[in-house]
Design a protein that fits this description.
Blueprint: H1 4-10, E1 14-22, H2 27-34, E2 40-42, E3 45-48, E4 54-57, E5 60-66, H3 71-82, H4 93-100, H5 104-113, H6 120-129, E6 131-138, H7 150-157, E7 160-163
Parallel strand pairs: 6-7
Antiparallel strand pairs: 1-5, 1-6, 2-5, 3-4
Length: 164
């Protein structure tokens, strides 16, 4: 029998994307700085489409899907958001208690932010002139959306949250 936390977390399908907009930075520099391959990029400045239509992009745009792990891996990653050395075998009661307070969305968001934790300085550089947004797309819009644990981490990294 699954625990109620496990079944709740498995029942919340979400997709998450990181969107960065910056007035001058080359999208390739963003890719290199984050170590994440984007799905779509646009470089600030003049551009022409394949059909020859000329455009002027006022800012660079970078969008990447953030990977989703399985429940066990998400739990470990959630623990690592509190302690980078955590593993399922070394999780303390205190860490489990903190994760128990997290909603299913918190676990998904903390999981998505995990690869960005060691990129904090680069993210701060981006937010000086640009913006970073975590886009959360929910397929089940009937489930209530509650966040308890992930908002401080988003704030720490300078990332805004948009929920669709």
């Amino acid at each position: 029998m699954k625990s109620s936390v496990a079944s709740k977390q498995e029942s919340v399908p979400v997709e998450m994307f990181l969107r960065i907009q910056h007035p001058t930075l080359n999208p390739d520099d963003i890719t290199e700085g984050l170590g994440i391959e984007p799905e779509h990029t646009v470089h600030a400045g003049p551009a022409a489409s394949r059909s020859g239509v000329r455009r002027l992009h006022s800012e660079s745009y970078w969008l990447a899907r953030l990977p989703s792990l399985g429940l066990r891996e998400r739990m470990v990653q959630g623990m690592r958001s509190f302690s980078p050395q955590a593993s399922m075998s070394s999780v303390t009661k205190e860490q489990l208690s903190r994760l128990r307070d997290a909603t299913q969305y918190d676990v998904h968001i903390l999981d998505a932010l995990q690869p960005l934790l060691d990129k904090k300085e680069f993210l701060q550089k981006l937010t000086r002139d640009g913006s970073i947004v975590l886009l959360v797309q929910r397929t089940d819009r009937t489930a209530p959306l509650a966040l308890r644990m992930s908002l401080p981490r988003l704030t720490e990294l300078g990332i805004a949250l948009e929920i669709d």
